[in-house]
Amino acid sequence: MNRLKRKIVVLGGGPCGLSAAWELSKYGHDVTVVEKEPMVGGLCITNEYKGYRFDLGGHRFISRNEELVCDIRKMMGDELLVSKRKSVILLKEKVFHYPLSIKDIVLKMNVWTNLKVLTTYIMAAFLKIVFRKKDISFENWIVNRFGRTLYTLFFGPYTEKLWGISPKRISSDWASQRISLLDLKDVLFRLFRLKKDTPRTFAQTYFYPKKGIGQMFDMMSEEIKKKGGKIVLNAKVSHIRVHDNHIEGIDYLQRGSMKTVNCDFIISTIPLPDLIHAFPRHLAKDVLYHADALKFRAVRFVNILVDLPDISENTWMYVSEGKYIMTRIQEPKRRSIFNAPEGKTSVLLEIPCNEHDEIWNCSEEDLLQRCLRDLNELGIDIQDKIIDYFTTRVTHGYPVYSHDYGIHRLEIFSFLDTYENIVTCGRQGTFRYLFMDTAMEMGIAAARNLMLDNVAGREKVQLMRSGGELIEVSSVTA
Ligand SMILES: Cc1cc2nc3c(=O)[nH]c(=O)nc-3n(C[C@H](O)[C@H](O)[C@H](O)COP(=O)(O)OP(=O)(O)OC[C@H]3O[C@@H](n4cnc5c(N)ncnc54)[C@H](O)[C@@H]3O)c2cc1C
Description:
Blueprint: E1 7-11, H1 15-26, E2 30-34, E3 46-49, E4 52-55, H2 66-76, E5 80-84, E6 87-91, E7 94-97, H3 102-108, H4 111-131, H5 138-146, H6 148-163, H7 172-178, H8 184-191, E8 205-209, H9 214-226, E9 230-232, E10 235-243, E11 246-254, E12 257-262, E13 265-268, H10 272-278, H11 281-284, H12 288-293, E14 296-306, E15 316-319, E16 328-330, E17 345-353, H13 358-361, H14 364-377, E18 386-399, H15 405-417, E19 422-424, H16 426-430, H17 436-451, H18 458-462
Parallel strand pairs: 1-2, 1-13, 2-9, 6-15, 13-19
Antiparallel strand pairs: 3-4, 5-8, 6-7, 10-11, 11-12, 14-17, 14-18, 15-16, 16-17
Flavin-adenine dinucleotide binds at residues 11-17, 34-37, 42-44, 57, 59-60, 236-237, 269-271, 274, 299, 350, 396-397, 426-428, 434-437, 439.
């Protein structure tokens, strides 16, 4: 078949799905993106309200992929800013540098705490060498590298709040992908500038669109449409049509009516469990258990419009103590001055939760009051300066790396591998804790494999930037 005559359907219009369609449309392929929401962007959308802009949790774009950065710069021109980042950790009524710095701990903690940090660190290092202690859980991973005291002070409470389960039940994979510091020795090396690479956590500059992260994907979708690609919104994929080991098309529900698109190839970026549930039940019955075992952490965002010029100079403030409801406090204006009207600012709070739990169901007013109490205790008093507020939610904020998630994911991939014309990729499609640049790279790689008829390249796409490589990126802006 003439390659250009092939019909490709992309499930999901987030960064991964749109990047795949962007690449395919550049080469004139017949591509249709099917997205369940009324707008594209996935987790990277920006909501506008009364002249203020709020992402779903502030995003920054960092990549070491020069080709990707170059294409995004070309597409966005002057609409893309280079912003500076300053982040801190609020802990025990003190402000610490983020990422954690040894200098801060020594200067800001009392002698007793410093002694405990040092002795538990030495003990952990000793036990690790003598007994070859294994990193099974997130807790082990941190304690083996930083010692028990730092774990109890910083990492444990933050992690438990983020995931809603004990760090003992979280796989060490999350720590190894998320925490750039290898151990205290690493911190010391960086302090004395003996180590020069710039992991993502340390990157001081990043790209950010003038009008919020969503602008990047709005512009991308315009380019896709200009090149002949189609984007169908409010369209929830509900069935995969299968014949033998070939997928013939999909059904989606749009405004109450079911529609069908036939296709020659599918690039799926929707959550793995949703994809499996869309297959005919008799075919997927053996993997439904594995699909249901993959859990996602939801997030609620409280967006507050404030009648003040500034709150602080920080882009992010991490709140690790469990008694406070939020994990991060952000001031969107620090990323782009266009995120708030002149002379005003705003506050964006990230509150992890589970779908339909107490926080998820909490009324907007009660949630705001709870947040204001916490902010007040943390020294941020905006009570009398609130112009307005609203809350937003996402169901698939973070893939929960339980101990056995890898087994379930593998079973699902093996099932999908029996179909010759589908690839699943992106953050939701691989159940991996990916940043947007990797999700975009995956989408582009999936599209290129397809254009080259390289079905065997599916696994490579799904494993892109696995392990330490995911985090150890330096920003090409830096
Ligand atoms: C709070 C927070 C902060 C973050 N900050 C950063 C950051 O600063 N920098 C960074 O690089 N990354 C950040 N990320 C990660 C970034 O958002 C993701 O890596 C990126 O959005 C992944 O893109 P994706 O296309 O793979 O998935 P998604 O963005 O989740 O897109 C999936 C799409 O599929 C659609 N969909 C789902 N089910 C269906 C269905 N049945 N039918 C049709 N469509 C469907 C969804 O609506 C969505 O549009 C952050 C994430 C969170 C939660």
